[in-house]
Amino acid sequence: MTVSLSEEQMQPQVSPTPQIPPGAQAPQRQIEHEIATLFEEYRTLREEVTQRVASRMQMIGFAGVISALLAVSNKLTFGAPTVYIAVMVLLLAVLWLRGFNRAIQRIGRHLRALETRINTLATQAWGAPDALLTWETGAQGGRMQVRGLPGQIGRLGGWYVP
Is the Cβ–Cβ distance between 132 and 118 less than 8 Å? Predict the structure, then answer.
């Protein structure tokens, strides 16, 4: 006896995700799953920031060492190319650093949005009176309070981006 299945019968049966009408509460389990998923993204982005900060510091060190070695070479005159190469290396390092800092700030902006979303969901799910995640929001608040010359240099260097 041979059984043949139609094309429809061979397709996997997937139950559709239940749609929650606007204004209705999502089930507790669904909110907790969303919090866990968002928190995993948050954790991954925090690790990315940590790695970028570490590599940024390495780049600063390499640029400084290269420039210092070129500047103290035997021919320290304005006619020698070593002085100009040292200045060019430092300039390129500063431009690279600025772009790198702005990329870190873009990640920080996304982290602040995730903090807000997770905190809102935690309040819905568990009635948490205080925000669960506050690190990036607090750090940005501190960065934006820097005034005067340090604040202007920081904004120019990409450290303080709203």
Answer: yes
